């Protein structure tokens, strides 16, 4: 369980990056943390990981305070940063040296993830490409079985087949006692993977809903002409080869298929209407 | 503050795998520098005890500081610090491993290397270059390890504070400290003189007006001494007579040793409190 209460953070002598953020993230869920560049996604993840200390508010991760960086906390939280450097070690050495720090590390799972990513299980980490290094670190992160796994732009630098493989491996590795938070601005990479969507904008979390709620309240469909739909129900539309893709208020009561990227674009383009829709529905 | 011997063991292995090459290169550098400089001085016929002390302490301190700076640098570097901070071990465990490598293993092995090369070069100087010389006085190993430990402890503080050029900045800092020490040398010498009052006077059988006066030339403040000053010729006569009384030397020794845990504590606090 991750609990953030009225969190406030700003870097030295600059405007706030996060202000008044309150969130409660449950185990057994994969959260997609979405937002434009520079809205504070990475900062939020680093606060959860205990790497940054908020100026105001409280953070609790598995009933521990991250800023204390106790070994028991660090064993249960794995952060995969967007930018990283790998040590001058072979994969086998990396596993031998790092794995003992994680009480629940699963060697077989690590080997399997490497295999699924079509990576060899030997060779020096520095001899691999950046994308391959990232896949090795993802495999390691998942094999730690840490209760909280934070991934910052994990699909950056991955080729298209690897992105598909990434979704498959994440879905297969996820355990009920775990919480995954995946931050990305490449929203399409999270399709069919996440349980909840968290959207950040302008230093705040502006949206936090399960996918099921979104698809109950919003409808995403393809239409030939926009006139096919009642204008008051259209929240957002984009032209496509086959006409238009539209996001509508779901008045049918039948859940629709979610397109995360299109939902994100809808929210960014028509924030008040979308938020109002969920506000009204919650009431 | 948590400390687990099992995690400490894992960290030792982790640190060794990461830095064993640098460790070996640093020891190799000590070997080369030690042999090289001793050979040059032996060739010049000036491989005296003080020169050997200089080569030993300078080599150990400079190379050791560089090695120490690389050990603790991940805690300051913005690229690597996340991985260093996220490694599941307490700050005390992480610091302890660095201290063991940098301040116990490195100076001991470095001193053994100097001891062996010193024996070898003195032997070569004596038997093959026919220059009379003796090996370094063993008491200087104590001083070498002491000053190295103090300097390396300070280096740990600088390496966790400064993201870049910690080694260079620290060398500049130490240089400033040393030269400011020289400037106050005379004052300390004067103080010692006052405590050991010895006004200018004509000594029996010597027509010159002589005085025991502070002589801080080429000496750091901790080795302030005084020499005989000839008032008639306005110059010192002979070398410095006194470095420091043994009691005061020991006082500096223990004060310097006490400084180390204090510097480690600052490093530990920085590692614990520092955000990425």
UniProtKB/TrEMBL annotation, chain A:
MF-aspect GO terms: ATP binding; ATP hydrolysis activity
Entries under Pfam families matching the protein: ABC_tran
Highest taxon of the lineage: Bacteria
Domain ABC transporter: 2-227
Alphabetic keyword roster: ATP-binding, Nucleotide-binding, Transport
Gene3D superfamilies for this protein: P-loop containing nucleotide triphosphate hydrolases
PANTHER family: ABC TRANSPORTER ATP-BINDING PROTEIN ALBC-RELATED (PTHR42939)
Name of protein: ABC-2 type transport system ATP-binding protein
UniProt source species: Chitinophaga skermanii
UniProtKB/TrEMBL annotation, chain B:
Coiled coil: none
Record keywords, A-Z: Membrane, Transmembrane, Transmembrane helix
Residue spans crossing the bilayer: 23-41, 53-75, 95-116, 145-162, 167-184, 251-271
Keyword Membrane among record annotations: yes
The name this protein goes by in its record: ABC-2 family transporter
Gene source species: Chitinophaga skermanii
